[in-house]
Amino acid sequence: MLLQGFLERAAEQMPDTVGLVCDERRVTYAQLDAEANQLARALMSLGLGRNDRAVILCHNDVAPVLGLWATLKADGVFVIVSASIKADALAYIVNDCSARLLIAEASKASVVEQALPSCPSVVGVAWADAPAGTLPPTVGSLGLPEVRQAFDASRPPTRNIDVDLCALVYTSGSTGRPKGVIEAHHNVISACTSITAYLGNSEDDVILGALPFSSSYGLNQILTATRVGARVVAVRSTAFPYPIIEAMQRERVTGVPGVPTLFATLLSLSIFNGAELPHVRYITNAGAALPVPYGRQLRAAFPEARVYAMYGLTECTRVSYLPPEDMDRRPRSIGKGMPNEEVYIVDDLGNRVGPGVVGELVVRGSNVMRGYWGCPEDTALRYRPGPWPGETVLYTGDLFTMDEEGFLYFVGRTDDIIKSRGQKVSPREVEDILYELSQVSEAAVVPVDDGLVGQALHAYLVLKDGQALSESGVLRHCAGRLEEFKVPQRAFFKESFPRGATGKVDKRALKP
């Protein structure tokens, strides 16, 4: 089976079911399939061939969903990038993967036109919302509105098999230039199958699509929903929370995927609760650790919903989840490996370690992706031979401990651990202590070079509306809860935190 089989099966079995909602547009699975077929033929006419890459530059809307399905149906490889990407970053990704085509909103014409002169591999651009006669003057332009009249809606023939590539998902580049994670059809199908199994997804679900589709977590909502015939409610922006809640109420959303920054915003609104949103049956968190207070607040606001703390990486989509019934007993755990997957912890020599010992987490399963596009050295570092001949496992680069029952506890990234006064400090541990302060909405701990202690810890805090704290009060709290070498040297207060495209806090931008 190929990934687009999710859509084709849904179109055959439930053609009149609405699969995607964005603003006023409601698209059934039959419509999605037919329009994706037409667009696939259009992309092929522009020059997209087997294994060619198509970069998609659109906000969360119907266009990127059609674009990814159409690229797959044309035997291509889709690459969704952030809608806020700048021209130089776009050019870097296009050139890195030698993309053949672009699919873009007309509102992004200036970014595309700035990037294209330095992108010799591009032979055409499909504009998502530009009717004929108004297309920006780029190579091989085609407007999606005219595709319905010009191309056949039957499914184009395909030659791909499930070990062929389906997507490149670029990492956020926290340790340098973004890298494209190579995803084959069977990798993504495996991940989606496991995730829908433990979440219990079905065709009755209505899933919020507020996370950017360019992120692995946001993209996953489209793919898992289509696998079971559920509906996605796409939200173009999270800048204004009330339209998100209005969409949740109107569409009777049952699944709410989020990250801590989104939950911090929504939890500040009294309307975000089970009484106002009675159809919510589950809430998931990934992308960054769910602070313990947020977990408690979400369960208090939605007592009938199941709240899942999860952990994943683009390199394998998802690793683990904490069953909601275990959240009280293990509030700082990110659970166990998901179905059809094995996880274990190794020391610096690659030997498995026992309970309570800090080591690097290793993931074994068919959800482990293929490596990094054009980066053999980085691939060899993370994707290594497994315990059985011929297999590859993922060395995550993240430090964990595991308890006697196999539950995982995040310590920090191997490149994120702070070395202060000759001791190793996990920023997550200090941040958990900062979140104990009821006035704190968000917390981040970063290292600052210091000639005396090596790296000093600086704490940055965003306070809840109307709340006040002093630096001395913060440091006293930490001193009472942490060993001396883990206590921040300074505490600073911010109105908000800088964020990357996926909503994660950009700690590099916080450093003085």
Keyword list:
single chain, 512 residues, alpha/beta, Rossmann fold, GMP Synthetase, Chain A, domain 3, five-stranded mixed beta sheet, 15 helices, 27 strands, 29% helix
Total count of domains: 3
CATH level-two architecture of the largest domain: 3-Layer(aba) Sandwich
> Percent helix among the residues?
25-40%
CATH class of the largest domain: Alpha Beta
Note down, in words, how this protein is organized.
The protein has 512 residues and is of the alpha/beta class. It folds into 3 domains: 26-183, Rossmann fold; 238-412, ANL, N-terminal domain (Rossmann fold, 3-Layer(aba) Sandwich); 417-510, ANL, C-terminal domain (GMP Synthetase, Chain A, domain 3, 2-Layer Sandwich), CATH 3.30.300. 29% of the residues lie in helices and 26% in strands. It has 15 helices and 27 strands. Strands 4-3-5-6-7 form a 5-stranded parallel β-sheet. Helix 8 links the parallel strand 10 and strand 11 (231-234). Helix 10 crosses helix 11 (292-301). The longest helix has 18 residues, at 29-46. The radius of gyration is 23 Å and the shape is globular. The relative contact order is 0.09. The mean pLDDT is 92.
